[in-house]
Amino acid sequence: MFRNHQGGTQNNFRFPIAGLLLLSLTALAITIWTMADFLREQAIVEELTRKLPRDSTATAKELVVELGWQFRLSILVLLNLVATGLALVLLSRAYRSSQESLRDLKALAGDILSSMDHAVITTDRNGFITSINRQGLELLGSKPDCVSKHLESLSKTIPLDRFLADWQSDRSVSMTRDFHANNSGRTVRATCQKLSDYEGREIGQVLQLRDVTERILIEERMRRMERYMGLGSLAAGLHHEIRNPLAAVSLHVQLLEEQLEESQVSEEVQLMLAVIKAEVTRIGGVLEGFRDFASMDKLNLEPVDLAKLIKRQVDLALPQAREQGILVHSILPDSPLPKITADLVRMEQALLNILVNAMQAMPNGGELIIKASANSDSVRLEISDTGNGIPNSLRERVFDAYFTTKSEGTGLGLSLCDKIVRQHHGNLDFLSSEDGTTFVMTLPTLQVSPLLD
User: Which residues form the Histidine kinase domain (predicted)?
Assistant: First the structure.
């Protein structure tokens, strides 16, 4: 149900109505009792009139007439009291009916708000919470007693009070803000708008919160796939167009070296030739990276034991880890990991690249943790380092091709890893903070044909 502040005014009208009805019944009883007295008095006066002398009969008849009018007035009062009682009964029934309708309406509104997939919070003009739905309690990890407290007490990780203050100063209907919950890695998107009563007067604000973590991940993957499609075509074209001229340059450099061997040349000329050969070799390496990135070759699929694959790659990375003072921990489940259908060479390349990237993030030593787990249809591999983390300004570009913050390398390592994982119908993401970075690789165990893009 919708959690709101319950006031004590629900039964305010019930007691006055019950009091008026009781008063009307009391007056009715007194009127009937008075009419009975009138009837007795009238009978007594008539009896006395028959016994009075003739000269006193006129006065006695006037008294009888007066008692008759009083009796008639009592009848009118009786009818009025009966009508009043009926009106109070009808009013009481109408009140109960309106209360039931109001309760049904509140229950319906509460059910609707509780069934919404995003949190709804209402506050008064001073920022004190007046209501919150069930999704809001679950999303923010709060308790129902948060109602009537200030908005700043609702969550320690999401500063909703500052967001509300910014909205009150700007009053922009389109204002939205994303908050990152550090404890769960979730992204919450908040919006705010004015809360008005039936007369249009502002009585507070309505805040809506939605968990957009999955949506942001999907949008990032879509943008990444679009970049890969364009860069893949570009890489294939560059490899084709540069390979032949580069081969010709390399051949002519070799012929020039053979000719110069027959004559004496200065060390300066030899140094220049060495530079040319080195640069040609470097360009050839870049072209190989282009070719790998744009490769459309079929995968050599086979059943792969993930535990053995992890052990082999960890053994390959151990010498460099020891040299840098990095402690390596492998955490595997007690039960055997399910096998995956994969290209062993490419999966080894992807895993080793991630391990090397994690070690490069810890030049002064640290811990490298490789943790594997499995469920009914997928395996999950986490590679965590204790480096300085990835700055927020660079996180969107981590998987971009040719992007690197190091002085060496082409920047194709992580983008190539991501592409290999996607070819196997898997997913590669990361979580980063000041305490380090964790790359999460998820691969299916179902026997499906991987993508060939």
Answer: 237-447
